[in-house]
Amino acid sequence: MTSSHGAHDTHGAPGTTPDNADNLQGGDGPNPPQAPVAQPGESLAREAWRRLRHNRAAMASLVLLALMAVICIAGPWFMPWDLAEVDWNAFGVAPTLEGQHWLGTDANGRDLLTRTLYGGRVSLSVALVATLVSLVIGVLYGAISGYVGGRTDNLMMRFVDIMYSLPFMFLVILLMVVFGRNIFLIYAAIGAVEWLDMARIVRGQTLSLKRREFIEAAHALGVRDSKIVTRHLIPNSIGPVIIYVTLTVPKVILLESFLSFLGLGVQEPLTSWGVLISEGTSNMQGAPWMLIVPAAFLAVTLFCLNFLGDGLRDALDPRTR
Q1: Each residue of 29-49: pLDDT tens digit?
Q2: What is 8-19 written as a DSSP string?
Q3: How many other CB atoms sit within 10 Å of the CB of residue 312?
């Protein structure tokens, strides 16, 4: 009786039906259920995005950077003051919420918030354009050098060493003497220097990838060298490249600020965070807000970029998976 009752409970109790027993053993077949298979090329990106979302510092930095970009781009349209407009009744006014100058004015009576937002446009545009220039040149140069190898690789890397030996300030001053001082020259000067590190990084990745099986298979199928470089080597080097780009942007912003601080950057009526910081240092004792406001915008942007770079490094690094 006891044995029969127990057997009856085993086959008839809720939660232990034959269907559920099959589920416990692996579902419809002898193999365990498989997760949905991602499309080729999407699984790594989805995994990286999932890992990045769990990094609170990186996600907060990403949100702050997006807000900073939106504010710098759209903010001046809603400001009551223009970039070079002078308020003749407010020279060197401290920040206040009562008037129209929330962050004060500079020594010439111009609204500091408006000038800081315009300066953010210039600094961020210089950073993005110069980084894009260095990305395109460095990735192509490094991939070709590493893939071709031999004497060509040696000559291309010796050229990189020569460029490394040239002082950056000497190159900038030389370009300004020849072409004159303008904002496009800053793009060219910074982009002409920053691609060197990118080229070395991509070259190292290419050297480690070009002997892999999928590259050998592409050779066996008769794929052209240009297609191998653009469709196989460069996409498989994208992880370190993305990480380095996020670290290059703050470096470029600092370079632009340094050039503007020395008087080699943008000219009036344009301004940048470096120019504003330079003006603030000369009035630091009597009007400290002229230094604090642009320096705070610059510091927040640099911190966010560094945190985002660290988060991308952790998300894309295969050794941490």
Answers
A1: 444 433 333 444 445 677 778
A2: HHHHHSTT-SHH
A3: 23
